[in-house]
Amino acid sequence: MNERERRANQSLRTLDEAHRNGRITREDYRARRRALLGSLCDSDGITARNALTPAAAAAPPRGGDAKRMAAPTADMASALFPDRRRLVWRLGLMAFAGLGLCALLLYALLLAGHG
Q1: pLDDT at 80
Q2: Residue 40, Cβ neighbours under 10 Å: how many?
Q3: Residues 36, 11: contact at Cβ < 8 Å?
Q4: Pseudo-torsion of CA 74, 77, 80, 84, nearest 10°?
Q5: How far apart (Å, rounded) are the C-alpha atoms in residues 84 and 109?
Q6: pLDDT band at residue 48, thresholds of 50, 70 and 90?
Q7: End-to-end CA distance of the chain
Q8: Does the reported pTM lie above 0.85?
Q9: Do 18 and 24 form a contact (C-beta atoms < 8 A)?
Q10: For 30, 46, 83, 110, which has the most beta carbons within 10 A of its beta carbon?
Q11: Membrane-spanning residues where (predicted)?
């Protein structure tokens, strides 16, 4: 984090504290916050981004990082949508546990009413 970002963070904290303590209104807080965040933009209004070059993206991971990082797959839908079999298994297990709990409660009620 560079010095400009540190100053902006400190200003945002001060602004947040003033809003929480009721020294400024919500609209004033939002306007000042927008102005502070706008000052972090580059001179031409476009924020900087960290783009990966093709060589850096294709470089293989080193050492112990290779085991932690999963190989990218061509099918990203599997990453976005979880496997339904696992969900069905969990729901079935929860239903079975719920039925068991209901049976135990019913048995306890029958024993309490009988004795």
Answers
A1: 61
A2: 13
A3: yes
A4: -130
A5: 37
A6: low
A7: 71
A8: no
A9: yes
A10: 30
A11: 87-110
CB atoms within 10 A of CB 54: 7
- What are 4's two structure tokens? 């400009």
Q: Which two tokens stand for residue 79?
A: 């990453």
| Residue 77, pLDDT above cutoff 90 | no
Q: Which amino acid is at 96?
A: F
Nearest to 40 by CA among 9, 18, 15: 9
Task: Give the sign of the dihedral formed by CA 23, CA 27, CA 28, CA 31.
Answer: positive
| pLDDT per residue as tens digits for the range 16-46 | 998 999 888 899 999 988 888 887 775 555 5
